[in-house]
Amino acid sequence: MQLNRLNVDSNLQSEMDYGSFEFPLEVFYDDLCKYDIGFIRWHWHKEVQFSVVKKGTVEFFFLDKSFKLSEGNGVFINSNILHQMKPVTQGSIVINIAFNTTLIGGHKLSLIDRKYIYPIVNNNNVHFMILDNTISWKKDMITNLFEIYDSYEKSDFGYELSIKNFLCSLWLTLAKNLIPNLNLKSTINKYEGERIKVMLEFIHNNFSKNITLEDISQTVHISKSECCRCFKKYLKMSPFEYLMQYRIIEASSILRNTNTSISEIMNLVGFNDPSYFTKVFKRFTNYTPTQYRKQIK
């Protein structure tokens, strides 16, 4: 069984290419349970993203909130916003559409970019917006998203023009309803968000070492209790739980891409007890390391 994987750098930026320079858009049909750790991990990218749940129920996580969205509902995720998605029900599927706004706005000095794109993409108060299909204009946006997906899948002659047309309609609806309300204050403390990113980057760069809660908290000069509060508030888990999750993500990558022995992998990712490594690995993936390696071969 081939499992999907989202690679990120130490700052959690996605390393995936979203389309090409000529056509900077990518459409994904994501069965979340088929990702290597059973969900799409924390990440961000410069592209804006629209997601719609095609099947099941999915929980979307942002730095200060999480939402469970059922089939037919979606979300707009702004550029550079940290997010994660997990299936609530088995077999949950999400259509994810990510694109660079130059596709609809042209160069950064264009009138379209200045009037309709820049005010949204560069506004610190706009992190995401739920697309509730019981609201007429949001339902129209969801319809556009399915039309984009269908055009991309069929790839008929001129499909790129059709997609750009649907994207313009989608963005016009978003701008009409969002820009007049951009004076709303953000509920996210931007400074705390940056602190979280710094602490996560420290974990990513040092996960194989015997790092402590104090080590993590000192990267941003806060107390251990404040560190735990930030992680619980924004990531819905403790620093230790995040460290364990990240170690298992790295272990799964080595299992999948190399023939390195399981005992050596255990040491490479910061564990020194085989039984504990197996227990933690199974908690996050539902497989033992041996079972996981067999599944992907």
List keywords for this structure.
alpha+beta; five-stranded antiparallel sheet; Arc Repressor Mutant, subunit A; Jelly Rolls; single chain; 297 residues
Characterise the protein shown here:
β4 and β5 (66-70) form a beta hairpin. Helix content is 45%, strand content 16%. The chain has helices at residues 102-105, 111-121, 136-154, 159-178, 190-206, 213-218, 224-235, 239-257, 262-268, 274-285, 289-296; strands at 25-31, 40-43, 48-55, 57-61, 66-70, 74-77, 83-87, 93-99, 128-131. With 297 residues, the protein is α+β, with helices and mostly antiparallel strands. The strands form two sheets. It has a five-stranded antiparallel sheet, covered by helices on one side. The chain has a four-stranded antiparallel sheet with strand order 2-7-4-5, with no helix packed on it. The chain contains eleven helices and nine strands.
Question: Could you outline the blueprint of secondary structure elements for this entry?
Answer:
Blueprint: E1 25-31, E2 40-43, E3 48-55, E4 57-61, E5 66-70, E6 74-77, E7 83-87, E8 93-99, H1 102-105, H2 111-121, E9 128-131, H3 136-154, H4 159-178, H5 190-206, H6 213-218, H7 224-235, H8 239-257, H9 262-268, H10 274-285, H11 289-296
Antiparallel strand pairs: 1-8, 2-7, 3-6, 3-8, 4-5, 4-7, 6-9
Helix pairs in contact: 3-4, 8-10
